[in-house]
């Protein structure tokens, strides 16, 4: 059975919006090496997004390519989870968002790599290797910040507390998907709880979980992000360099 | 270790392809990586296949990216077309495949030697277990000392990390095992 367009768009948009957010750090990260690291991770996410968007366009069959899907959709047509569109007000927020996302993407891509759909299997096999680096990088930073100074601990704990509710949306059941996200929660919890413990951070209690991203109901932050990401393509259709 | 990709020319029959196979393959294999200009795409294992249709003589080149977002791929495709045009095959097709995924284990022995000669530490064997990397000893490509440290896990291109030698103090690039 072919995956649905919405499902492929969901994982494509997670990667695309993450790439755009990470790109905002370029030349503004706490240290130069981190500029390079976050830009590299953004590039990986963009690479996965391009492959997935191209596939989503083919599944849809309406002639939309990766550029049409990235640059000419409005916010209500995006299927990314809310977590990735939230503004990166603090470096700790960026790191925790990346930790939560990559701890989800890694088992997702690994499962897709073993799945029946050839295209998703190829993309998953490729992306899982890069995802392992993203998880490693965000884990190391979480531990460094959590087990660092009083100030770094306070700020990364605040990020964990603020973002934890948003992680629930990643595991919304989708039985029609090639890999039901609900089945990834155990692997995710095991990874994230291990990192938080090593970082001397408190794991928040489960409770309220905002959702809506998968059905196109987003926070206001996505509109601003899209305005910046899409303005050039919309102003100069077909522009290349 | 994963088996190295097969880059042999599969043309065996057909008058159109007679004699053209090895020359075509050599022309494509000689294309230099635009970001690490000391190695070719064949050295890196990016080049997966060169075939010639026995009926039409049309050449098809298959390549695979190192990383999904590698920005060099467009340039590599253009360089392959240029090389094939020069070799008399302007109608060639360049295909990009993603499976099986590229691995640094596919970098040839010659490619590793060229990297090291250019001051870029070649990758070790790919780790197979666990999502968290265990740092392996990386020898300084300048003085050969094993006493090195990682400065940044991400470097000047998607496939490299930045390291420094504690003996001779030189910073150097290291191709990450993937």
Automatic annotation (TrEMBL), chain A:
Q: Would you say which domain of life the source belongs to?
A: Bacteria
Give a GO biological-process term. phenylacetate catabolic process
One annotated Gene Ontology cellular component of this protein: cytosol
Which SUPFAM superfamilies would you find in this protein's record? Ferritin-like
Supply the Gene3D superfamilies for this chain.
Answer: 1.20.1260.10
What NCBIfam families does this protein's entry cite?
A: PA_CoA_Oxy3
**Full protein name:** Phenylacetic acid degradation protein
Instruction: Provide the species name.
Output: Polymorphospora rubra
From TrEMBL, chain B:
Domain spans labelled PaaD zinc beta ribbon: 136-176
Q: What domain of life? A: Bacteria
Q: MIP18 family-like domain spans which residues?
A: 23-87
Q: What is this protein called?
A: Phenylacetate-CoA oxygenase subunit PaaJ
The protein's organism comes out as Polymorphospora rubra
């Amino acid at each position: 059975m072919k995956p649905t367009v919405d499902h492929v768009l969901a994982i494509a948009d997670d990667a695309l919006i993450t790439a755009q957010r990470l790109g905002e750090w370029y030349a503004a990260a706490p240290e130069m090496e981190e500029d390079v690291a976050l830009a590299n991770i953004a590039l990986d996410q963009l690479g996965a997004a391009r492959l997935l968007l191209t596939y989503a366009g083919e599944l849809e069959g309406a002639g939309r390519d990766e550029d049409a899907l990235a640059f000419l959709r409005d916010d209500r047509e995006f299927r990314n989870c809310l977590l990735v569109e939230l503004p990166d007000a603090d470096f700790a927020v960026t790191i925790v968002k990346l930790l939560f996302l990559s701890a989800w993407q890694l088992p997702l891509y690994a499962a897709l790599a073993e799945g029946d759909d050839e295209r998703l299997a190829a993309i998953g096999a490729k992306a899982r290797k890069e995802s392992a680096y993203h998880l490693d990088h965000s884990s190391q930073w979480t531990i460094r910040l959590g087990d660092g100074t009083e100030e770094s601990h306070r700020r990364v704990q605040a990020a964990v507390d603020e973002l934890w509710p948003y992680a629930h949306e990643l595991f919304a059941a989708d039985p029609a998907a090639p890999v039901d996200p609900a089945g990834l929660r155990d692997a995710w919890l095991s990874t994230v709880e291990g990192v938080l413990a090593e970082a001397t951070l408190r794991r928040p209690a489960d409770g309220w979980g905002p959702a809506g991203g998968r059905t196109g109901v987003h926070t206001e932050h996505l509109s601003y992000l899209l305005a910046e990401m899409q303005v050039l393509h919309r102003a100069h259709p077909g522009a290349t360099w | 270790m994963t088996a190295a990709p097969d880059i042999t020319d599969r043309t065996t029959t057909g008058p159109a392809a007679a004699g053209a196979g090895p020359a075509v393959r050599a022309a494509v294999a000689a294309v230099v990586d635009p970001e690490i200009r000391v190695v070719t795409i064949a050295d890196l294992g990016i080049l997966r296949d060169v075939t010639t249709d026995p009926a039409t003589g049309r050449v098809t080149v298959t390549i695979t990216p190192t990383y999904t977002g590698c920005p060099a791929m467009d340039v590599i495709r253009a360089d392959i077309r240029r090389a094939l045009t020069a070799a008399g095959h302007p109608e060639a097709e360049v295909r990009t495949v993603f499976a099986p995924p590229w691995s640094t284990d596919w970098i040839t022995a010659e490619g590793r030697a060229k990297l090291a000669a250019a001051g870029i530490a070649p990758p070790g064997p790919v780790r197979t277990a666990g999502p968290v990397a265990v740092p392996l000893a990386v020898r300084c490509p300048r003085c050969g000392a094993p006493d090195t440290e990682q400065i940044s896990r991400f470097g000047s291109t998607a496939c490299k990390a930045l390291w420094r030698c504690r003996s001779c103090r030189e910073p150097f690039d290291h191709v990450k095992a993937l």
